[in-house]
ABC transporter related protein (Bacillus selenitireducens), 254 residues
Amino acid sequence: MNDSVIDVNHMTVHYHRNKAIEDVTFSMPGGQIIGVIGPNGAGKSTLMKAMLGLEKYKGQVSFFGQSIQQIRKEVAYVPQRSSIDWDFPVLVRDVVLMGRYMHIPWYGKVSKEDRNIAQEALMKTGMASFSDRQIGELSGGQQQRVFLARALAQKADIFFLDEPFVGIDMQSEEIIMSILRQLKSDGKTLFVIHHDLSKVEQYFDQLILLNRQLIRSGPVKDVYTPELLKKAYGGQAAVLPGNGNESFMVVSPS
């Protein structure tokens, strides 16, 4: 699927009269894993929340040519772990079942099919044996897999993940990345905020490079360059040689 699925036109978001992001425009094809990278404070999470209708903005956003309100059921969101109250007393299985709620009429109730879909999502993420555990009892990686399972249970076409690999173990990161690749092979579109530049080429097909304004968007090979990274990170992107390929990391300014 190569046609444009996500279109953002001239998006600007203000926080207390200051511009968090300014005049951002890009289009992204479907069936791809799209990485959003940039320095701290670049507006990556703001961009994602605005696209999802969770922040006010100026401009236009469309998915398959429709607004987020028209296509809400088809868009799943995995927020940052730091934004979630892990002390809330809820079981793992109930968190995953939340992914089915928007498919249930207000007068209906959770069906056997809904429970089967949730159980399948738990199995895919390796979390089925934790169904009866409190969400707050899990490790960071396990919690992230549960919230991915909730998104899977929604049966969406577009997945938004905000920093899914922060503060988790390597096993969980590998499981999550494997699931994202499977979703891509199924024709789904993944929109992922990411901070580890060393894994960009390994993880993503398309990139959005942001620092309040759009630096560049497009295929990884066109965006993941020393010149553009230095422009985005203000000279904090270092080029590391290795095996004939260039890789990048962020270093503290001198």
